[in-house]
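dumping these here so i dont lose them again. two proteins, back to back, each one seq then structure tokens. dont judge the mess
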Amino acid sequence: MSPASTGASTAVGAAVSVRSADSRLAPGGPGYRRMSFALFLAGVATFALLYSTQALLPLISGEFGVAASEASWTVAAATGGLALFVLPMSALSERFGRRTVMTASLAVAVGVGLLVPFAPSIGALVVLRAVQGAALAGLPASATAYLAEEVRPRALVTAIGLFVAGNSVGGMSGRVITGWVAQEWGWRPAVGVIGVIAVVCAVAFRLLLPAPRHFTPGSLRPRVLLGTVRDHLSDPLLRRLYAIGALFMTVFGGVYTVVGYRLTEAPFSLPQGIVGSIFLVYLVGTVSASTAGRLVGRLGRRGALYLAGGTTAAGLLVSLAASLPLVLLGLVLVTAGFFAGHAVASSAVSRTATHGRAQASALYQSAYYIGSSAGSTVGAMAFHARGWGGTVTVGLFAVLGVVTITVLGSRAARVAARREPVAAH
């Protein structure tokens, strides 16, 4: 082949590559708004269903005659089911497509959600919630993999931030709605209303989400999947990001599982509707998640994680006060720090993984929801043993873990940078 023909073929290949990159979605481009709104609604449905019982735990404890640590399993079972099944569901999305798996997952989770209000015992309720969590496992990893494939790299952090913002809106609206409905009619109608809302979100999601244009089916062979998982787990950066996600969610899961008990008891003694409205502070998380891209642009990834961890720790300490306004301020800071940290870490996973993005995201989501289950259970146990101070202590240790891991990552990056010039020689 002549040099001229080689140059021509290279130019053609580069042009094809540019066109392929340009065909991905970007802010202001066709389909981007529909895609963003569809995944926003998927995030709303996911978190509304996943944490539908969290604001209702005092009422569930009262009806079934169980302690906070036992009632908290209605939350931990859902997040635990998601953590266990997110990796298998991500493998299905590699073979059958992100949109197909997300649609099926929402359909099953919504169906189970309509059965939850009829649970005859605490055991049955926990089982239904575990099944619901397992069904929802198809959403998080598939959504981030879809975005990594269909959105231009520069817009990825913002796009994932919008999906996370949908999570925060779902978590907030689910808790606020259940709080007020439960105050009038009990916890069963409250979770039933959430099921109906999730049906609407699921239908709208399926109608709005653009068909994928850059998805390439992968293999379901166990050897291939295990090799991909092994590759991701051998990457030090991905391991650190997984641990950071788990630790942030340990804080968040513990705080929001227990806060309802604290606010319904003395000295606050708030009614259930007001306690549910406390979750309006999730709106802060909506803002912090959706602006995570700009935060990374100004501070870098590690700087953004330091800021998120420091904000979370400050919120935990402020919440120790026996003053309702200060408790609310503490929740605002914890929520802002958590959602910013989660958006930064999850988007970094999608950008770091060069192959098997669904598995990389699934491992993050698995660690994240293991952290949620651990935080819900350990936070409730600490509250039972030591009160709110015990839950705060658990959260502070988790934040310390985030900061420590980020420091170690900074040191590893400096060592790698010093080795590069040596390797060049």
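---- next one ----
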Amino acid sequence: MAEHKAEPESGGGPSALRTTVRTLAETLWFPAFFFTGFLVCYLLPFHNPVPHHVDVAVAGPTAPQLEQALEHKSPGAFDIHQVADADAAHDAVTGREATAGYVPDAKQPQLYVAKADGYSLESVLQKTFTSVAQQSGGQLQVHEAAPTAPGDGMGTGLFYVVLACTIPSYISVMMLLRATTFGRRKKVLTLAAVGAVESVVAFFVARGMDVIPNEPLAIPLIFLMTQAVAQTSLGLVPFFKQFFPGVAMGLFVLLSMPSSGGAIPVQMVPGFFRALHPIMPMGNLIEALRGLFYFDGKDVWRHVLVLCAWIVAGAALLALGLWKERRAARKEAGNGTEAEAEVAADEPQAAVTPSEPPVEDPSFELPRPSAVPPHLHRMGQQQPTLTGRVTDEGGRAVHGVAITVTGTHGRELVRAITDENGEYAAAGLPDEFVNVIASSPDRLAAVARVRARDGHPVRQDFRLDRRPVPAGTGR
């Protein structure tokens, strides 16, 4: 039966205090990061959204005077440019050259708006230009140039469709980290399959609720975004290790959602998030879908290129991580013979003395090195990355042998005990060379150096000979 090595309790004094502080820091940095992130990235941009540089096409020669009046009333809120007539103002909105179009008239001024750009922005435009019309004695007429689908009354339904495909994309990566029997290629293919299913299901559910128009081309666009998030997240894992959940969720939640322009129009969030809008995958998918659904495909290709660039970046990170792994493997292999001889020459107790405390993993998604039962693995349990059997000189199973796995610098990763069949198993080992030491009080210790790799379970058997009886003991 496998078991973990018990850790000694900390005593009192400064050392215990430092240990406590370090444990709290390693454990609570993740919720502290999110607490701060939600305050800065959600409360800040959403608590009082105001327009910033909203582009308005104004028909006729009064555009300069109107710009001065609006700038005096709301500095930096609106950018005015002049167009020839009412048709040009309308076309500027439908062609995404302007957010709104205004046609001054003494009696019936007209405003062209697009709910597809966000209901809250449309409301601000109506309020602002109603006041402008009243000052000239006219009654404003509002025309919807790009209405949303009937089931998307607030113009935010598209945001939630995209959000439903964004969050599972990186959560899938975090959960796949537990699939230690899956190699890199299987994980990439799994993420692609998950993204394909999400894209199809999201489209038909949203279509069934009448949240989006019937444009099946949206399915490959959504798929591109899922892969931009998932493959980039997978590529980040080797570089950030246990901090990966914070990096991925910070990138694709704390920064992506406020800058997406889906819940709050991008023209109404602070400048930092407006600058992120053309870069982040979520915002680019929302703009691509808006262009596809409501603006005759305007600029869809540009947003597709950005999503493809994220996928290429993810592939580059995966390739760089593979190169880094192989380089480390060659280096370890070159030192393997010497290291194995040193470990075999020493007593196991000396070999497993840790030179540094193990890094505690702050998230439940990432696997920890642990001893697991050699058989009868249940749903949710880690699959073994290292298994083996210990026998004696006659090939019989040896029960109760301590199996110690150590990593770089001799740090102990996990300890297991062989069961009644002489078998042991360990899971969650780091992707590197490890030393496996088999020891028992009445037998000679044995050591082996093996390579632990995701998706490639390794087996290491041992044959332990009895310790020779010292001369003069009478036995």
